Structure formats: structure tokens, C-alpha cells
Amino acid sequence: MLDKPPSSIEFAGDTITDRVIDDLSGSISGLESPDTLNSTPESSESETDYALYLDLDLEQVDESLASTIIQEIEEGVYVCLVCTCEIDRLSQIWSCLGCYRVYDLDCIRIWATRRSSTTAQRTWRCPACYLEHNKIPQRFTCWCGRKTNPSPNSLIPFSCGNACDHKYESCIHRCFAQCHPGEHPTCGAMGPLMMCKCGAESQQLPCLMTPYEDGWKGQTPCEIIVCAMGHRCAQKSCHDGLCGPCSAIVTVQCYSGHETIETECYKINPKLSHSEDGLMIVGGVSCNRAVRSFYDCEIHFEDVPCQAIPQEKPHCKFAPDVVKSCYCGKIAQDNVNRQSCTDPMPDCNNPCGKLLNCGCICKAQCHPGPCKCISSQVVKCSCKNTDFLVPCTALEQGFEPLCLHKCAALLSCRKHVHKAVCCSYEQSALKRERDKKRLIRNNLRFNFADQLLTMEPCHICTRDCNQLLKCGKHRCKALCHSGPCGVCLESSADDLVCNCGKTVIPAPVRCGTKITCTETCQRPLPCGHTSIPHQCHDGDVSCAKCTHFVTKWCECGLKEVKTALCSAQTVSCGNLCVVRKECGHPCNRACLKECSNGIHASVAQCPFQCRKIRKSCPHMCTLKCHQAKNTTCDSVVCLLPVVLTCMCGNLEKKVACGASETQETAIGRCIPCDDECGVKAREKELRAAFNVALPSEPVYSDEVLAVYRRQQKWCRQKELQLLEFISNYMLAAELKPTKSLHFPAMSKPQADFVHNLCDSFKLYSESYGQELNRGVFVHITERTIEPRVRIEQALASAEEVARRAEFMVEMRQKKLNEGFNNAVLITDGFFGISKDDVERKVQQILTEFPEIEQFSVLWIKDSTYAFTSAYFAGMDKEKENLLYRILNQFKRMLRDDLIAFDCRMCLLDDDMCHDLKVDNANVMK
């Protein structure tokens, strides 16, 4: 199918099939009929049309595609790309309009449904050609799409048997072939009868050769008369459009009659002129000679260019009736005494005072002729950057002052600056740059191509780009430009051959062209193994590495790796070297030959942290391993945070540890107490003076007791270690006591137990190390004490207290369960119901119960109220029965009147503020 009307065709086998050539040749041979073409002895019309046919450019139609589709469907071997199953005559199919690939209808419907669900436009693409579609296939139609569920066809599967009737885009005809798959055959019909461009001739050509857009030229020259003198069209061949002005050369006189001039016919403008002898002349053009024209006084005259001279001479401009004042117009006609045009003009000593073109006033004395300005004006230079004082006469002559300022505008290439002296377009360029920056700040788009079209010509860069192109061999020959350079247009006269020699790109070959060969690469691998099948490639690209598995020894020589790649230069078993270096850290290098030979990683390059216990504080050294530097861990001040408390334990503050070789650690110190601590101390003294006991704080926290209850043996061991540590510190009088104790790595629950236990002993504790391997260290403080009881004793006391509390709760609950209900709980109040609405309805209900004289409705929470009365202060069985009857009335009437949905009996405390229990069953005891 043609994409556009044909304009030229190359008569070659790789461009059009021989069948189409034969058909068109027959059509051309029939054009020699006298009804269609007029032949001449010099050149035949058919030969001209045949040459035109040879110049046409057709798109080759792959007619073998339709035959292949039909043959494979007939044989049942055509494969659907979606399900990879075969398609035969009994299948229901759908064909893509882009690549004409045939799919099973159900498969392509599922494919389209799934793919369209992932795009915002609900579109999907063909699996073969990726053509975008916006409709999901639903119907099984014939190839042309006009018949649904076509009946079997013995010649073409899935064909309706009718003509395809597809409208060609490049001509006026339709496809005449039977309903078929694949591309449509080339149009072989005859085109319409077309007139030539001038309309003198007509002819009919095959549709492929018919120039629908450009038209055609006939052999008869255009004979249209184009002027009043009878001249015909100057174009000697058939043409389209107007013939144009008459260009015939004619000889005419000028208007003054002095010269005879040869000129083109369309330039003649005839006019009637009168000579000095009284003769009438018809002139056609002007000779541009000066002609002396006398006024009616026959004394004064004026020299004018060659023009048509009228019969009546013009009135003298110096006549008394014309001149009514002096030159400047300040002396009126009454003061002018002139009788003829030859009388002198009146004298005037006044300044002229006429307004000049420059805007100034003429300051000369009244004078004949034009005024001349002698003033100057302040004007800006061309670039508008400097002011100059310029005479008005120079401005009237078109002179413009120039400064020495160089233009700072960027050229079109965005690389060079104009730098011209006093550029008149600099301000326009700077304004364009400001507008561009404003658009960028406002996140708006601008089109550089549109700006380039409106850019001043002087700001177009005319230098050569000369940048190295992507090919790396040639340089850009275009004008200096912004953005990347285009592709290299150089070409080579040698064929481009791939490495295997099976793919060739014939000359000329554009520079930078990469040859793509689909054959298998034939290069042998140096190891002798068979390489992975891959496409042929250039020599600068290496072949894929050998992937065969071989047996190799690892670098450290401890393991034989049987699955090592043949192309691998080194093989590693993955084992890390665990040999300790001088610094105490492991070598930690993976499978190296040097480690097997006893050469381990250098201590100077050790990447681990030091992590040794500092001497000045119980923290670990956080510096990078400094064994090679011969420096101690305490040479650097410890900056790890520690928590300090006051003596009473009320205040806490985080400070840096601060321990170093010259300074002790801040751990164990106490910060000063503040006013709040003094208030609490005085309160404690007052309570002691008045025998008011404070609530006793437990010696051990609940977490310590809970862990001790589960792991008594381990917890008792840690308790004894801390007691022994404190005891040793207390007994060491003159010797320097040990203030810190480090526990080994333990789990997080165990570390939490140690921290909580240290709080009971008033010891400072802190975790150190990494996760899953964290230890705990403790430090003596000024507040450190030995608890008055052991954990085992505290646990026994806590359990006794818990048993007593549980017993009291049981007794209280038993008393509540045996007590009588004394109120009605109104629940689930309807939307918009207030307390006043509930009180009014309750008062209406209580008219049936005269025993209740006073009552109250209490608000408990949203949509919940409580009814009570002083009558139910001392409850017994009889009063509870009355309350039960009231409950039934409340439940029925409050629900009927849409006040509340449910009511229950309950027991309120003595203050009538809290409900102690609610009878959910609403059943009498």
C-alpha cells in the first residue's frame, strides 16, 4: 500500500515485482492511442510517460506474506505467539493491522485485557510489532472485518469470499482482491482522465503513475494573450498558475519626447504630454532627465524629472496673489506692496521661528529657502548605554553616535559572547535572557527553536563548530550551535564486512556505522572449550568468557573447588583468615595465598576498632586500631555519655565521661541538689517529726523479682557477685580499691536484670559491645549501698502482700455480689436526647409509683444516665422488687418514646458517682 502519491520509481528488481512491471508496461504501451496522446516525430508522449514511470518511487509490497499465512494455516502449523499453539481452519483468529500477525482470539483477548489494565490510557500493544491498540478484540471476523463468524472458505481460510474493498490512501481506488490476510496488493487500476497544467491537453495513466498532487505538463506551449497589445504568454511550455506579466520588449517615447526607450511591456504606463512646440505626445516611461517647466509668467521656471507636461502651465509661485507675507510669515499681506512676480520680497528682520523636523525652532533671521538647525541634542548611542551631545543636522542625515561598550549578549550557540562595539540589539538580547530566566524560575517551558527564529541576525553565531563527533574521527562542519552535534555524515568507499565475513554492508558506508551480524561468532577460545553461542561482533568487543566448570585449587590451597569457572583467574573458597595479629584482631582476609605463606594483613591497616578496656574508665576504646602508632587508649579523652545523679536521686544529667591519662572519669560523681531536692528533704523531715509515714518504696523492682522467680540460681549468682564487689570496695581502706566490675557478654533480658539490680544497689551500670554480644560493666558511686534485704526475702514479702491483696479483693467482690441494687442504669440514649428529656419522661412514668416522691437522674457518660432516689437509700428485698417493676416500665416506655434503647439495674456507691456493679441479666434474685 502506498503512503503517498507516487512521484518516482526506480525500475529495479529489488524495488517492484516483475508482475507489476509487466502489467504497467502493457498499460503504457496502450497509451500510444491517438485518443489519449499526441505523438511527435521528435519525442513520443509514451516515451515521456515511460520515463516518468521509471522515476516513480513505490514501496515494495511483500505479497509472499499473505501466501505464507494462508499456507501455514492450511497445513495447521501457524503458531500463535501468545499461547504457542498451532492455528488451523477451525480456529477463531484476530489479525494485527500493523504487522498482520495472526493470533488465537481467546489468547489475544486475555493478553489485551491484562496489558490494558496497567496503563492509564487503557491501551495495549501487539506482542509482535508493539503497535498500540485501544480496543480489546471481542469478535471473530473475516480478514476485511465486514463479516462476523465467517463460514469456511475452500480457497482462503477465514475469508468471506467478497472483494476486500479497502480504500487505498494514495489513490481513489479500492483493493480488488478477494478478502485476504497481509498487505494489500499494489493498485493496478487506471487513473482518472487528467488535464495538463494549462488545460490544453488531457491523458489517462495507470494509477501508479498518475501524478495526483503534482499534475503533469503537456507538450503544447501556452498561447494565452497576456496584455492589450496582443502579446502571448512568455513561458514556452505548459505551466500551472498565472502566466505572469508580459515581458515582451517594446520601443516607446519618454514623457518629454526627448528619448526613445526599449523596455518590457508590463512597465509601460501611457500618459498624454504637451511639448514646448505645442505638440501632443503619448509617453510610456520616464527617462529620468531634468525638464524645465515654465510658470504662466514665462519668466520663472522649475527643473523637474521627466514627466507628463500638462497643456496649461502652472501659476507662478512668486505671484502677488500667492506670496502674502514675508518668508517667515510675520509680515502680513497689508504691509506687502508687490505688483508683479518680479517685485522683490519684503524685508523682515525678525527671527524665522519655524518648527523644524528635529523639534527645534529655527533661530536664523527671516530667510528664503529651507531652514537649517544649528542646535544639538542629547541622544543615546546604539546600545543605549551612553549619552552623547549630537548636532541636529547630523541626526537628520541619519548619523547615530557609537560608544566603546562591548555587547555582552550570548550568541545563538550559547557558548560565545557577541563583543561587538555598541551593538544596537544588545538590550533586546538581554531582555530575552531575563524573560528566559523568569520562565525557569516559574517552572514554565520555553522553546529555544522559537527563540532562534526571532533572534537578531547579528546574534547568530557564524563560527564553525569544529567539535569532535561521536565517531571520534571527524569534526562537526556545521555552524556553532547549542546542544549535541549531529551524526557524522562522512562515508567510506569500502564495504563494511563483519568478522565472520557473512554479513556485508556495501559501500558507501556512513562513518560510525556498526555492522550487526546475526550469525554465530566463529572465534576460538584460548582455553580450547566451546564458547557460548553468541552473535558475531566487532574486534574491539571480546567474546563471552568461558563458562565451563573445571576443578581448581583455591588461593589459600586448603580446598579444591570443583565448580570453578574456566575463565576465572582466581578462585576463592570463601574462608576468612582467623589468625590473630599483634594487635589482637583477626586477619579477616578471605582466601589469600599470602595468608597460607604466613604473610597476614598489616597491623597498620587494621580496620577494626580497638575495643580494649581503658585504664582511666571502664569504657571500651572506640578509636581505630592504633597498635602500630604506639599510642595508649587513654591518650584521648573519652567522650561517651554517662548519667550522673544527685545524692537524693531526684536529678539526672548526661555528661561526657571525660576520662584520660590526666583526668579521672565522671562516673560515680554526684551533681549538686537543687531547690526541689531541698523541698522534698524538708517534707521528709516534717513527716518524720509528726510520725506521718511515707509510702514505702520497694527495695527491688518488679522486673527484678519476676526474673528471680524464673531463674533463681543465675540471679542469686549475680547478686552475690555485686555484694562481694561492694564489700571488697568498702574494706579496702588504704589500698586503691577497684571501682568497676565487668560482666561477660549476655543476652538482653539478662543485661536488663543486671541494670535493674544495680539500681537497687545505687551502682552505675552501662552496656558495652555490639548487639548479640553485649556485656555490662558497673561502677561504684557516692550513693552505693548494700540493700537491707536479699532478693529472696523481698520476693517472699511481695508474694505475701499479693496474697493479702487478692484476699481483700475477693471479700469486697463477695460483698458487692450479695448487696441489693439501688438504681436503674439508662443506656443507649437516642441521638439528640438530653438529660432534661430523660427527666421529664421519668417523672411521667413515676406517677404510677406514689412511693417515689423525690428522684434524680445522673449523667454517667455519653448516652448513659442513672436513675436513683432517696427512697432506695436503705435497700431491702421489697424495695428491690419495686425497683425491678420501675425498670420494666422504664424499658418499655423509654423505648416506645425513642428516649433510650435499654435499661438495667445497678448498684451505685454511697456518693452516687460510680456504678459498682451492673445487672446485665435483669433477673430478680
Low-confidence stretches: 1-61
Approximately how much beta-strand content do the residues carry?
A: 5-15%
Radius of gyration: 57 Å
Largest sheet: 5 strands, antiparallel
Question: What gap, in angstroms, lies between the N and C termini?
Answer: 99 Å
Number of H/I helices: 15
Plain-language structure description:
By secondary structure, the chain is α+β, with helices and mostly antiparallel strands. Among the domains are: 18-203, no CATH class; 250-317, no CATH class; 320-374, no CATH class; 406-482, no CATH class; 702-801, Ribosomal Protein S8, Chain: A, domain 1; 820-919, Alpha-Beta Plaits (2-Layer Sandwich). The chain contains 15 helices and 32 strands. The strands form 14 sheets. The protein has a 5-stranded antiparallel β-sheet, covered by helices on one side. Strands 25-27-26 form a 3-stranded antiparallel β-sheet, with helices on one face. Strands 1-2 form a two-stranded antiparallel sheet. Strand 9 and strand 10 form a beta hairpin. Helix 11 (712-731) crosses helix 12 and helix 14 (835-845) packs across helix 15. The longest helix has 28 residues, at 791-818. The chain is extended, with a radius of gyration of 57 Å.
